[in-house]
Automatic annotation (TrEMBL):
One of its GO terms (molecular function) is sequence-specific DNA binding. Its EC number is 2.1.1.72. Keywords: Methyltransferase, S-adenosyl-L-methionine, Transferase. It comes from Salmonella enterica subsp. enterica serovar Gaminara. The keyword Secreted does not apply. InterPro entries: DNA_methylase_N6_adenine_CS, MeTrfase_D12, SAM-dependent_MTases_sf. One of its GO terms (biological process) is mismatch repair. This is site-specific DNA-methyltransferase (adenine-specific).
Length: 114
C-alpha cells in the first residue's frame, strides 16, 4: 500500500491476462489453518509461539551510499524499527515460532542478525 492507503501495484496492459483460478482454489484449500491479520509487527509477533510460522518482509535497509526507499507508511521504517523487528522475531522464536525474515545485505543488517 502507498502513503494514501491505496494498493500501489498497477494493473498492467496485458493483451491476454492470466487469471490463476486453479492456484487460488488450491491456496484456499491449504490455508484453512492459517491466520491472516493486519497489524503492526510488534502486536503480531507477540502472538506467535510454538507451531507458528512467521514471515517478515520489512522495507529493506538501504545499502551504504544509496538513498534507498523505506517510506511505505507515514514515518517510514527507521533503523530503530529494524532493531525492534529483530528483537520481536527473536522473542517469537524463543517461544517456539519458526521465523523467516528477508532484508538487504547491508552490513549493519548482517551484524544485527548474527
Amino acid at each position: 500500500y502507498n502513503l494514501d492507503g491505496f494498493f500501489n501495484v498497477g494493473w498492467g496492459k496485458y493483451k491476454s491476462p492470466y487469471f490463476p483460478e486453479e492456484e487460488i482454489r488450491a491456496f484456499r484449500q491449504k490455508s484453512h489453518a492459517c491466520v491472516f491479520m493486519t497489524a503492526g509487527f510488534e502486536r503480531t509477533l507477540r502472538l506467535a509461539g510454538d507451531g507458528d510460522v512467521v514471515y517478515c518482509d520489512p522495507p529493506y535497509e538501504p545499502m551504504p551510499g544509496t538513498a534507498g526507499f523505506t517510506n511505505y507508511a507515514s514515518g517510514g521504517f527507521s533503523w530503530d524499527s529494524q532493531v525492534a523487528l529483530a528483537e520481536s522475531c527473536v522473542a517469537a522464536h524463543q517461544r517456539g515460532a519458526k521465523v523467516f525474515i528477508s532484508n538487504s545485505t547491508a552490513p549493519r543488517v548482517i551484524e544485527l542478525y548474527e
